[in-house]
């Protein structure tokens, strides 16, 4: 690194800094949180960049720019964000595998804290991105069970409850929502087994043929502001709000 263009350890800051709100790169189950990174920094050079700024005396009076944040994910996995769905997902850059549910071996308690701190945010899209003719926008609260297509979630690495137990749980949520005690969105943030929980259950805009048929039929039958009864799909049991 010493002697390469624009890279110094003699006290001069590295060129071409740009401010970013958050950078997360998975390294052995951690994420790197950084307030500033060089423009167009290739991912494979990130660790070299960390070493570079660590030896740079231009930052002696400042707290470390980069800190490790536990994600709870197994080594090699990281959290990314889907722009099309406006939702977080899990990705392994070595195997190129991506999934909506956390991989096996995830520490779900640690993941809950990480997601709450770094992947919670507003659900609205001021520019209306995703809206189109024939599309609707819905939120939902999902409770999975052991017969679900993927019986795991960011809340639990292995879901063992029966379908009947899941329905009873959802009935309790439904009663609280109908009574006005809590909104579906607020409840989804802590109780939904879908990754959309971090967006208050928001699924964005979707049209016919984009969701499971049972979910689609129930969602399109709702009027704006209306909440469905319990909807059963291969994913689990849902409450849907249009």
Automatic annotation (TrEMBL):
GO molecular function: peptidyl-prolyl cis-trans isomerase activity
Keywords for this protein: Isomerase, Rotamase
Keyword Isomerase: yes
Presence of keyword Cell membrane: no
Domain PpiC: 133-242
Transmembrane segments: none
Enzymatic class: isomerase
Domain of life: Eukaryota
Any one annotated GO CC term: nucleus
Ranges of residues in domain WW: 71-105
Enzyme Commission identifier(s): 5.2.1.8
Biological processes per GO annotation: positive regulation of transcription initiation by RNA polymerase II
Catalytic reactions on record: [protein]-peptidylproline (omega=180) = [protein]-peptidylproline (omega=0)
Protein name: Peptidyl-prolyl cis-trans isomerase
């Amino acid at each position: 690194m010493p002697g390469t263009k624009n890279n110094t350890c003699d006290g001069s800051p590295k060129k071409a800094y740009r401010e970013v709100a958050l950078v997360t790169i998975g390294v052995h189950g951690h994420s790197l949180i950084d307030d500033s990174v060089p423009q167009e920094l290739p991912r494979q050079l990130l660790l070299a960049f960390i070493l570079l700024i660590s030896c740079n005396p231009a930052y002696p009076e400042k707290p470390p720019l980069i800190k490790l944040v536990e994600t709870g994910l197994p080594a090699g996995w990281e959290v990314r964000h889907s722009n099309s769905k406006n939702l977080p997902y899990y990705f392994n850059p070595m195997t190129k595998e991506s999934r909506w549910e956390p991989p096996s071996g995830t520490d779900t308690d640690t993941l809950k804290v990480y997601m709450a701190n770094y992947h919670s945010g507003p659900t609205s899209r001021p520019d209306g991105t995703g809206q189109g003719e024939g599309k609707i926008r819905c939120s939902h609260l999902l409770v999975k069970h052991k017969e679900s297509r993927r019986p795991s979630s960011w809340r639990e690495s292995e879901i063992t409850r029966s379908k009947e137990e899941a329905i009873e749980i959802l009935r309790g949520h439904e009663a609280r929502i109908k009574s006005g005690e809590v909104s579906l969105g607020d409840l989804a943030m802590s109780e939904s087994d879908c990754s959309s929980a971090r967006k208050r259950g928001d699924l964005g805009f979707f049209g016919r043929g984009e969701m499971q048929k049972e979910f689609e039929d129930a969602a399109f039958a709702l009027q704006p502001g209306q909440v469905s009864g319990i909807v059963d799909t291969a994913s689990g049991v849902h409450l849907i709000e249009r």
